[in-house]
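Table S2 (continued). Query chain:
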Amino acid sequence: MKLLNYFFMFALFIFGFLIIGCKDKQNDEAQIMKAKQIPVEDFFKNPEKTSYKISPDGKFYSYLAPFENRLNIHIQERGKNEVKRITSETDRDIAGYFWPNNEQILYLKDKGGDENYKVYLANINGDEPKCMTDFDGVRSMIIEDLPEIPNEVIIAMNKRNPQFFDPYRLYLDNGKLVMLAENPGNIQGWFFDHEGKLRVATQLDGTNTSILYRETEKEQWKTIITTDFKESFEPQFFTFDNKNLIGASNIGRDKSAIVEFDLATGKESKLLYENKDYDVSGVSFSQKRKVLTAAHFTSWKSELYFFDKEAKADYEFIQKELAGYEIAVTGKNKEEDIFIVRTYSDKSLGAYYIFDRKNKTIEKITDVSPWIDEKEMGNQIPIEYKSRDGLTINGYLTLPKGYTQETAKNLSVVVNPHGGPWARDSWGFNPEVQFLANRGYAVLQMNFRGSTGYGRKFWEMSFKKWGQEMQDDITDGTKWLIEKGIANPKKIVIYGGSYGGYATLTGLVKEPDLYAAGVDYVGVSNMFTFMKTIPPYWKPFMEMMYEMAGDPVKDSILFTEISPVFHVDKIKSPLFIAQGANDPRVNKDESDQMVEAMKKRGVDVEYLVKDNEGHGFHNEENRFEFYKAMERFISKHLADKTE
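Corresponding output:
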């Protein structure tokens, strides 16, 4: 299991030809009518079956499926029809799970969206699951699955201090927890060798990151390299001899590359793979054969570079058999001869298959969402445009069924900036986007400056640029659609979640005549209060956050300028805000402030709050309510716009 990268978690939050004449116009409208309107529920209800995994011995496969409208774990013996449900959670979907051994499954679940996940243990014999970390207000994470030690896993908890995570060895036979190290307050990642020994830690002191190393668990930690946080080596796993590390590094380069890092010298010893255009984010390996298999990066879609001929041959065989779809290997047994394969595309959530490597057979298990007819979905087209200062911005344009980029003219558009902001949009099925396209809207997604995957320089160009050049990139994409004739300039809506919600509010402030309406989903409105209400375990990142987004004291003038709540007098367009009451990332007060300020100005604002949700709506009944309300809101406020 890939170790948890705390900074990545943090960054991920902070927050992804003119046709003339009435006859031609009628033909365009007829093309939209060809798409069958699909119910909201079909886009946003829980999958029929998803998150398939296989037991280490390959005898059982497991999956998440609805029980009383919540995703629960089911298991099924290969070759048999009998299905056994081994969990019965009714308040919240299971957030994630895995097989530590052949008889047990570990899973994570929080309460009401508070993100204080607890670790539960379920036996496949059907015994009542047990909570292994039943501590109030504590967040638990599984950070190492120890595949060679079937009755132990490594977890991290902020039980001792809410700001810091300590590593614990969890014994599955008796539930015993043993603290392996006490976090002094600046350790953000713990790394274990293939024998389960804790030997590497990553440390953050303000804006400097260091790698700490010890040859054995009895020795003292020593610092082997320290860099500014903008330039770092991110460990992923030990080499198979447990001497060095494999990971991603942008030290001395703009794009992250996969390298081998020498722990004795504290330097990169071997470049394994780099791409001149994109960050290479990850690497996979064969536990059984002790070889690297592939490096992972994202261009306009996910791509692989293979180190291993066997892995490449398997991939090409599967790709040929399942032609027309992208594929991903999502699980394998210990012998690595039985694999779980997932297909997907921009129009489909795809299906799961079992690939039998020895017999070269592929058996379909199930479709993920069989009620989605991909023939009714729109095309997600990779696009690029220039920002006003000459930067190339990549993105995606999803068109309603029946349209191509050449025939799309004068359409209603939803501009959809991603969250993060230090994340990115990518190609694949997005239920929000396809829902909007099914309703006749073109959807524009853009990877504005700061989006990840395009190198350090592109990322750093976003520092202290919230609401400024980052917002200009979004505006420039909107105007590019207008210039191309694709967008009806009077029928453009801006919608986003988290940072995308902030960008929505900022767009309405900075471009009051560009957007006909806005939808803000758990977005930041006040940079001052946002910085004060983040979860305690993000406190170690604050100096870094001050450099990336701004310091509320030193940059108070900037914060006042870029906080939408202080500029509601500039907003002309109606606004819909949705918020989870238990959101630990963007406090409910962010939305409350904005609603109050809008009402004082007499500007139309709708407000939806769900008491059992956090940063985004995870319970399907709440998703249904939100997207139905959003559909009504957009339709209402575009209906009276003249051509």
